[in-house]
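TASK: fixed-backbone design
INPUT:
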């Protein structure tokens, strides 16, 4: 594995939280200009890895390189967009007010706010207070904020949770349009039926990288009909190997 064509390069990462080893010794990479899916069950270490990548997680050892710089470096602040599982916007402001506020903070043009709102299909709710929106709509406001300034890397932690199938489809369409324009996306999910929408996958379980590759390659490797079956086959294989 090399980091020549990687937007993110993680090497021998070890993270302990609350006295529990969450990531024991993780090495992986995120290819530039693609949509990479970080998949696995809840509690498997996905959010911890994401926090390490955006530079807000204390690590015990190992290195995390993002866009050629150490994770959390000051020069990455405008180059990395991060959407947490919980909406990170102001409930007492409207959608437009939130976007205009964060546009000023980031130093981008006011016109970028309207464009970001349109990207996430919230134009009809631009004047609505965020606190009165549904959870899925609030998540989309957070995504719109992350899109401001066209960051080189978008890190999205469970961005489609709570969305209906149509909105999920539309968001994945947006993700691929952004990647086609040169941006890199890392999208976490515990919903395996979203795996086929990714260019490349990282399958994480119990803090360990079980497999990585394209959805097709993982299916062919396990002779499975879908990625969920491939993941289960890989888990079963890892268990048998550990017991032998």
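OUTPUT:
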């Amino acid at each position: 594995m090399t980091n020549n064509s990687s937007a993110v390069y993680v090497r021998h990462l070890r993270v302990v939280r609350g006295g529990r080893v969450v990531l024991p010794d993780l090495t992986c990479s995120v290819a530039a200009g693609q949509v990479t899916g970080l998949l696995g069950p809840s509690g498997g270490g996905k959010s911890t890895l994401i926090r390490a990548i955006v530079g807000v997680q204390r690590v015990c050892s190992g290195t995390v390189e993002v866009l050629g710089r150490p994770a959390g470096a000051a020069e990455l602040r405008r180059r990395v967009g991060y959407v947490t599982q919980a909406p990170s916007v102001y409930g007492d402001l409207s959608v437009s007010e939130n976007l205009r506020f964060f546009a000023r903070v980031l130093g981008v043009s006011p016109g970028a706010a309207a464009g970001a709102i349109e990207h996430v299909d919230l134009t009809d709710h631009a004047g609505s207070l965020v606190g009165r929106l549904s959870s899925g709509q609030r998540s989309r406001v957070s995504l719109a904020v992350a899109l401001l300034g066209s960051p080189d890397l978008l890190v999205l932690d469970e961005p489609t949770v709570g969305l209906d199938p149509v909105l999920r489809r539309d968001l994945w369409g947006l993700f691929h349009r952004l990647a086609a324009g040169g941006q890199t996306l890392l999208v976490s999910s515990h919903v395996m039926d979203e795996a086929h929408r990714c260019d490349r996958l990282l399958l994480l379980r119990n803090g360990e990288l079980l497999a990585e590759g394209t959805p097709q390659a993982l299916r062919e490797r396990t002779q499975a009909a879908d990625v969920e079956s491939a993941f289960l086959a890989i888990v079963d294989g890892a268990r048998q190997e550990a017991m032998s």
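COMMENT: The mean pLDDT is 91.
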